[in-house]
Amino acid sequence: MTTRRDDDALSWDGDDDPTLDVGADTSRATIDEPVPDAAPAAVEQRPARAAAEPEPADLVEREPEQAAEPAAMGNAALVSIGLIAGAYIFFAIGWVIAGLRLQAVSGLLVDPVMYAAGTWGATLAGPIWFLTAFVLTRRSRTWVRFVALLVGLVLVVPWPFLQTGVGV
Predict the structure, then answer these.
(1) Residue 62 falls inside a structural domain
(2) 160 shares a domain with 89
(3) Other CB atoms closer than 10 Å to residue 127's CB: what's the count?
(4) How many domains does the chain have?
(5) Distance from C-alpha of 130 to C-alpha of 128, rounded to nearest angstrom
(6) 99 and 29 in one domain?
């Protein structure tokens, strides 16, 4: 025997909705009055709700705008895209470091204004590629988005930073 107070701790607001009735007595007892454990009603005593029940999801026709919506990405895909975005950020930082490191050497060959424009263009190429690939593949399959993002990672590798290394 359990008390009604114990049952209240295990119930949600709206549990006494008549559409959820399976034949058990749902009348409220006082708090101190014990309630006997209710057994489920027999199949013959259950109310007939066939007309009130919704159709299964696979039998319901979808509206055209719902069918055009892309499926939501799973957790693994979101984490992977976050890691790829982090790699793009690190590549942009690598381009800035490499550009600043090689600035003195390039002054002999290239006009400083053109060198600065090239450095900032290379720095912004990664984030621009990421945003472009992310926006243009939003209605595509997930693997297409990953291919576009990974191709961009290969294209915007900061080669000057990798060739000069982290030392001065």
Answers:
(1) no
(2) yes
(3) 15
(4) 2
(5) 5
(6) no
